[in-house]
Amino acid sequence: MTSSSLPARSLAVAQALAAAGVAGEIVVLPDSARTAAEAAAALGCEVGAIANSLVFLCDGEPLLVMTSGAHRVDTDYLAEQLGSGRITRAGADRVREATGQAIGGVAPTGHPAPLRTVVDTALQRYEVLWTAAGHPHTVVPMSYEELLRVTDGTPSAVTVD
Asked: Which of 85, 138, 139, 145 has its CA 20 to 30 A from that of 42?
């Protein structure tokens, strides 16, 4: 796949990944991968290996949470882990404002400005993770270590196991 055939938002993601030294190439899927289940089915992997990019508001600021597709973020638990105030889900307009990307295609990088990020420690059990790449039809593989590096994320459990 040439970079010229990628959607515009995915080009910004590809540039940010290259700058961070992430070797994985963006894959364009024929169908939408807006949900972890759709992405896992399209890629033939476990749903837990899908690193969902969810945007919340924490103390009034966007918080990107990269979480395993196998579970939901417990916002009360996460707030306790971060020592923060209440965490609430960001609306679609706030997600696009913070990331430059639409819900269902939010990548861990390629945003207008760096976002405070938490990376779910449950993801470290997978050798290869798949994240959205800026568009609902694009994904990119990377390791847990690469995900931490590209997001400058804080590792944390995001739910009580």
From this structure: 145
